[in-house]
Amino acid sequence: METNELNFEAKNLEKIKIIINAQIDETIKSIEKNREDIVLAKQDLRENSQHSISSRLHSFENFFELAELSQYILPITAKTDALDNEQTKALSLKKMLQAPYFARVNFKFEDENEFEKIYIGRTSLSDKDTYEIYIYDWRAPISSLFYRFGQGPAHYVAPDGTIHGEINLKRQFEFKHGELEFYFDSDVQIVDEFLRKLLSQNATNKMKTIVETIQKDQDVIIRDMGSDLMMVQGVAGSGKTSIGLHRVAYLMYKGLTSRLLSNNIIIISPNHLFEQYISNVLPELGENDVESLIFDEIFTRTLRYPRIQPKNRFLEMLVSAETEHERNMIKSSMEFKGSLEFKEILLRYIKDIPNNQIHFKDIYYHGEQVASAEECKKELQTNSRSSQLATLLNLLHKKILDRVHELRVIRLKELETEARQDLSHRYDYKEYARMISIAESTTLILEVESFTELHSMNLYTQLFSNKKYFMELASGLELPSNIDEIMKQTYANLRERVILYDDALALTFFSIKTKGMRTNVHQNIKQVVIDEAQDYYPLHFEVLNCMFPKARYTVLGDINQSLEKNSTMSLYDQIPKILGKEKSTLATMDKSFRCTSEILDFSSQFLDAGVTITSFSRSGDKPQVHKSETRDEFYESLFQEIEYSQAQNFGSIGILCKTESEAQSVHAHLKSKMDIKLILSESY
Question: Does 132 or 236 have the greater pLDDT score?
């Protein structure tokens, strides 16, 4: 580092620190002022609205007292919100002191003569009076210069159009406890060395941000705003999950103008452990965390049934199957029930339910016919295309009971007359007549509910009970060769009220299509991020499309990492069609940053021919396969491997087992020799 440049950067850092500290002091004063204002406002509320508070506020006569009360409450709410914002700002500024920025780009706009020094950090820093920007947020349009260009001609897309110019310097900084540890002027080779150093550090139990090392192709994915559906096919270790989360942060940053807030975004995660692993990324980027959901939770929220097989149990059942026939049975059942063919069968079944599955009855009230079975059936058939089946049945239920209510008024008078003539009810004839009326109505209501109450589980079970009927529904569709066995096993499971994972998926789709969503909580979702999409079947995406029909999507996956099915690139042809997205983009990432060259060479033998993964040129030990003749030999070999890993100062060591029972066995054997934690599905 040249002395003059080092001095300049040191002076610039001190200048930035002074500005940050000044803003911290100003923010703290604002916090104290807000606190004082809140105290005074609460005093005004107590002193000036005592009568309003003690009045019967629910009554119409006290409308003006309510209005007066709101005049005191609103300022308190506003001041409280302002206090929260100022406290968040103070925390952000204090955090910024530790590492104000990570990069600098010297950029000369094409119509200017001087190069401007553009400093880039995780958050921006500016003067609120002069609007001078000292540090640009990494998501700002101009910051893309750092990620996409080296020295020479460069450009970036601003709100007013494309801005052209020239770069003559790219510099990266490393801070430690707020002090400049070192900087370097970056070219591709040096940047790669810096990234290699970061990747070689011990992993932590939380995913880290990668704003300092985002690659050009990754930046393109992060900043894409034109696609309704952004799909990323990324090999293991390519950083696709990190890119997905940084894309969320970018969308939230852009959401300041497009009104995309944290409650407008949802992440569909593979499991709860993964949710915990990624939980720090958005807060570290200065954004509120967003809701995260796993598909198992979609099943339970929709079906509200306690005995649903979770995904991890399904996978364990698959990998631990004792015979090849059993394994193929599990796979083929899942593939069929998650397919577009089965979706079509379910839709045909739903359409036919009013014709063959609902047993309508003639409804009589005190000898007078209220509705005929034929009339009820015809009404449902006529409107079956306009609304969901459950809605139509509810309307039919209401229509019948409305008629009954009219007749019940007349019937109640008759009952009162009869009861009045009964000497034993001379003094309570009205109450007695009402009790008889309620009993008659209850019996009638139960009779109406017998064909207007929709039981998804029973209807779904019934679908597998009649092979001839099933085959009629499946006419023209391709079925698996073992469909008879699938139907027989499914019916047996459902009769025992056991819902395996494949049936949970199909039953959730069936329930949504017949009953709709049980809650409107997801209606405000505008962006859905799906990770590990290679493990999803078409019906998974159909369910998501039902839940978030108006949302845009970011879909991350790797067809080579699917555990229970053979995924191909055709997956990315299906997704846009299912989700109905015309503006879709598929980006591929074939460079692995996580794995060493030796690990990639070893794992390539398990991939299909033609699949290429580019290494980031990190080296390490070659993977080894150890074979043990006895369990004692196995544990001894395992113990030696753990000791070797500990000697290498690895920050975390994991032992993965095929099943939870095997994991429990290994843990029981090793826990007396070392500090080891058992992680099961219930652990997170």
Answer: 132
- Distance CA(610)–CA(250), nearest Å, equals 34
**Confidence class for position 456, pLDDT limits 50, 70, 90:** very high
Rounded to whole angstroms, how far apart are CA atoms 194 and 187?
11
Residue 165 CB neighbours (<10 A): 19
Q: For tokens 């025992």, name the residue.
A: 496
Which of helix, strand or coil describes residue 326?
Answer: helix
Which pLDDT value is given to residue 444? 86
Q: Reduced to 3 states, what is the DSSP secondary structure of residue 551?
A: coil
pTM for this model (two decimals): 0.84
Rounded to whole angstroms, the Cα distance separating 144 from 156 reads 7
Classify residue 12 by burial, with Cβ atoms within 10 Å: 0-12, 13-18, 19+.
middle
| H/E run at residue 31 | helix 3-48
The chain-wide mean pLDDT, for the chain, equals 86
What gap in Å lies between CA 306 and CA 304, rounded to an integer?
7
pLDDT of residue 69: 57
CB neighbours of residue 684 within 10 Å: 12
pLDDT at residue 538 in the model: 97
Residues 6+ apart with CB under 8 A from 518: 301, 302, 304
pLDDT tens profile 330-385? 999 999 999 999 999 999 999 999 888 888 999 988 888 888 999 888 888 777 66
**CB of 179 closer than 8 Å to CB of 164:** no
H helix count then E strand count, the chain? 25, 17
Say which residues have a Cβ less than 8 Å from residue 574's Cβ, sequence separation at least 6.
340, 538, 541
Task: Look up residue 63 and give its two tokens.
Answer: 């409308």
- Indicate the pLDDT class of residue 10, thresholds 50, 70 and 90: very high
First to last CA, the chain: 48
Token look-up 């200065």 returns 286
Q: Could you give the C-alpha distances from 268 to 166, 235, 301, 343, in angstroms and in order?
A: 41, 19, 14, 22
In the three-class reduction of DSSP (H, G, I as helix; E, B as strand; rest coil), residue 100 is classed as coil
* Phi, psi angles (nearest 5°) of residue 227: -95, 135
Q: Which two tokens stand for residue 200?
A: 């070689």
> What value does the CA radius of gyration of the chain take, rounded to a whole number of Å?
33
**With contact defined as beta carbons under 8 Å apart, do 576 and 584 qualify?**
yes
Q: What gap in Å lies between CA 533 and CA 245, rounded to an integer?
A: 15
pLDDT band at 563 (very low <50, low <70, confident <90, very high): confident
d(CA 345, CA 342): 5
Write the DSSP assignment of 351-399 as a string of letters. Answer: HHHHHHT-----EEETTEEEE-HHHHHHHHHHHTTTS-HHHHHHHHHHH
Which of helix, strand or coil describes residue 154? strand
Closest CA to 529 of 281, 342, 306: 281
Q: What is the DSSP string of 646-660?
A: HHTT-S------SSH
- φ and ψ at 514, to 5 degrees? -95, -30
The more confidently predicted of residues 673 and 127 is 127
pLDDT digits (tens, 9 = 90+) for 279-301: 888 888 878 878 899 999 999 98
